[in-house]
Amino acid sequence: MAVINTSGSISAFLSNIYEAALLTAREASIMVPLVFSRGDTGMNQYVWAAYTGGTFGTVSEATDTASSSQAFTPSAAGSITPALYQATYTISDLRIASDPFNVAADAGRDLGQLYAVAIDTALVTLFATAANFTAGTLAGTVAITWAGLLKQASNLRVKFAPPPYNCVLAPRQWYDLSAGTPPTLFQSQKLMEQFGDFYQASWGGINFFVDANITQSIGVAGGTAYGALFSQQAAILDIRRAFRIAPQRDESIGGGVTELNASAVFNVGVYRPTFGVSIAGCSA
After folding, report:
1. For 181, phi and psi rounded to 5 degrees?
2. What CA–CA distance (Å, rounded) separates 36 from 125?
3. 165 falls within a domain
4. Which helix (H) or strand (E) holds 4?
5. Which one of 31, 83, 258, 275 has the fewest beta carbons within 10 angstroms of its own beta carbon?
6. Helices marked H in 126-188
7. What is Dmax (Cα atoms) for the chain?
8. Nearest to 209, CA basis, from 170, 153, 164
9. What span, in angstroms and rounded, lies between the C-alpha atoms of 270 and 151?
């Protein structure tokens, strides 16, 4: 049965005056600008292909290259199936009239945060499967080093992954990396303005970000956390229907309620696995 948020749920607090309402603390969406994005409509599966290229070599002056034409044939390389995401808050008219806060606006803002977290979490969850990113692996307890990351960036270069390279780490992973003697880091004003405090620094052609939506075990030696070093096309975000909130009235319940129905249609996937490196492990 749906939960109806009534005035009774806050009646014990009405004798007090509140200055501000705090929403549940959540991380923002960091990953969206860092991955390949596309948009379409409908629920059809999206399948992408990869070409098998030929070779470019020397020929004699009399060679008829038409007789040795090479194949240029696409083959399926991956697919993604959109999924419907939804969340609903139902708020009674009496709750809205009695609440010391602008509960409808707060609920709408919270639904927007839920959407942002859902996308970001879906993308960083791709990091937890090493097979998703095949250019290399950096794993072990406190094994994340500056030299190790530079080596993995060279693996991306060998795979012809186009820069810039972005490294997204769990907070404890960033601590493990920066606890050592860091090289001379620099700040990108553009990335600072775009990502705020989630952007940490840049070095060696790598931009570093911290994302708390990455699951990490704190207080456990060798705690599990999975970050990644990747080029933009390593992962894909396919948004079929953008986030929206559709209010709906129902006068048959308790003098009237408003449903705030938030929904979006999207999914994520690995786009070019050779354009990413898995980074596993963190300290206690």
Report:
1. -80, 105
2. 16
3. yes
4. strand 4-5
5. 83
6. 146-158, 171-179
7. 96
8. 170
9. 22
Residues 231 and 244 in one domain: no
Same structural domain, 167 and 210: yes
Would you state the pLDDT for residue 222?
57
Separation of alpha carbons 149 and 210, rounded Å: 15
Q: Specify the amino acid at residue 26.
A: R
134 and 185 fall within a common domain: yes
- Residue 18, pLDDT > 60, answer no
Two structure tokens written together for 61: 């002056």
What mean pLDDT is predicted for residues 79-100?
91
Q: Which amino acid is at 103?
A: V
Residues 141 and 252 in one domain: no
Q: What is the mean pLDDT of residues 157-181?
A: 92
pLDDT in tens, 218-248: 665 556 889 999 999 999 999 999 899 989 9
Rounded CA gap, 200 and 197, in Å?
7
Q: Identify whether residues 178 and 90 lie together within a single domain.
A: no
pLDDT value for 14: 45
Looking at the fold, whether 147 and 187 belong to one and the same domain comes out as yes
Q: Are residues 94 and 198 in the same domain?
A: no
Residue 216, C-beta contacts closer than 8 angstroms, at least 6 positions apart: 170, 171, 172, 173, 223, 224, 225, 282
Range of lowest pLDDT (143-152, 183-192, 199-208, 217-226): 217-226
Taking the mean position of all CA atoms in its chain, how far away is CA 213? 8
Is the pLDDT at 127 greater than 70, yes or no? Answer: yes
Query: Average pLDDT, whole number, for the chain?
Result: 86
Note whether 126 and 237 are within 8 A (CB).
no
Helical segments of the chain, H only: 93-98, 103-125, 146-158, 171-179, 189-195
- Name the helix (H) or strand (E) containing 123: helix 103-125
CATH of the domain at 184: 3.30.2320
93 and 164, same structural domain? Answer: no
